[in-house]
Amino acid sequence: MVQKLERLRETASQTGGPYVHIGCLPSFTGITSIFPEDLGRSPIAEGARGEIVTITGSVYDGTGWALRDAMLESWQPDASGIFPGHEGADPAVSGFCRFAADKDSGEFTLRTVKPGAVRARDGTLQAPHVALWITARGINVGLQTRIYFSDEDNSADPLLARIEQGPRKQTLIAEATGDGSYRFDIVLQGPGETVFLDM
Amino acid sequence: MTDPLIPRDRSAHPDAYDPGYKTSVVRAPTMPLLSLDSGPTEETGPVFGHDLLGPLDHDLTQNFTQGAGLAMGERILVHGRVLDENARPVPHALVEVWQANAGGRYRHVKDGYTAPLDPNFGGAGRCMTDAQGYYEFFTVKPGAYPWPNRGNDWRPAHIHFSLFGHAFAQRLITQMYFEGDPLIPLCPIAATVKDRSQLDRLVAPLDMAMSKPMDFLAYKFDIVLRGTRQTMFENKPEGA
Ligand SMILES: [Fe+3]
């Protein structure tokens, strides 16, 4: 016998199910009397410093069908790479957004400020990115990934450098389509499968 | 929080692919997840103030009507603690819940179950943990409901939970079940949790000590979120 490790195990995840919007984006389901507004309606307030960008995409399953019931959350720093709540952070950037795939088209839109590069603990710079978390019916553990930007220099990013297969890196890079707009599709399974993070 | 997170123990969780839960089959990634050490992106997260909460947010028996009418069903208090893997309380964690009504029906266009809607029940609520990690909300016990999966699958009574700790990578969505429900061992979604002790931890015991005579029963549901690796001499509480 050895001594016991006094550590608890994380509670098991369960799928958010088909009605995740009731709890997370109630107005999406027509429930408007409980809360004044849904949580995380926008990651930025009026006057946020930096370039406003719009990221549009869909979440595809293994058959190529765009999920109509996906719910997504994003988290990011301000245009200087400072996370909300930290010294010098832009007070107009909350950094957090909750949004849903459209119930008819499956398309989502995230309007935010383009984040700045982030300095990691070891001093290395990470290319500008937005963290993304995806939940839906059939997803047993929420999926973590990142959105990078095709018009930024991503060559030295430590996370992208960890991905051996060049084409797979592309799954994390939103393609600039002009006028501050980007396309970022997520593929849950199969050819072009998005890189998800063990995080 | 800017301490590195303890890497996620994936054996505590369901696999992405579970043929017993058919929808997971086409929604499960097949490639291995990319492992990395946590950094600022994962270790920070949105902070929600107590001013977010309205007076009835944590009372699902009243919040849909804002007190004008009471929901139908067995009145229950659900309470517990949110701790991290180091057994420290997680204060100011946002706990969001949603559930079916007492008849097993969700207020959702896609729910076509025969059980009727309750005009006084919306099915959503939220609360925050206090400095010791305690939370509680008040609701009615949800009913079991059938769902299209295999020939005759029913969900045990359950409440969906969504949790924010202090780090974006602590995000967790899970479900709470009720002690003694015979449908739990038959449920393919509960069965995605392969580790029996992990599944048992999703089942809330009846807590008569916290119930109130002639008013409500209580169930206790404790939740553990991911913790951080900390140096031994730096014993600061999480979130400080
Ligand atoms: Fe449910």
Portion of residues within helices of chain B: under 10%
**Terminal Cα span of chain B:** 8 Å
| Poorly predicted runs of 5 or more residues of chain A | none
Distance between the termini of chain A: 32 Å
**H/E element order of chain B:** EHEEEEEEEEHEEE
Number of strands of chain B: 12
CATH topology of chain A: Protocatechuate 3,4-Dioxygenase, subunit A
Architecture (CATH level 2) name of chain B: Sandwich
Number of self-contained structural domains of chain A:
1
Average pLDDT level of chain A: 97
| Quaternary organisation of the protein chains | heterodimer
Number of helices in the DSSP assignment of chain B: 2
Strand tally of chain A: 12
**Mean pLDDT over the full residue set of chain B:** 95
Helix tally of chain A equals 3
Which ligands occur here?
A: fe (iii) ion
| Radius of gyration from the alpha-carbon trace of chain A, in angstroms | 18 Å
- Which strand order spans the largest sheet of chain B, edge to edge or round the barrel? 4-3-8-9-10
CATH superfamily of chain A: Aromatic compound dioxygenase
Protein name (chain A): Protocatechuate 3,4-dioxygenase, alpha subunit
Domain Intradiol ring-cleavage dioxygenases (chain A): 48-190
Family (chain A): Belongs to the intradiol ring-cleavage dioxygenase family.
InterPro entries (chain A): Intradiol_dOase_C (IPR000627), Intradiol_dOase_core (IPR015889), Intradiol_RC_Dioxygenase (IPR050770), Protocat_dOase_a (IPR012786)
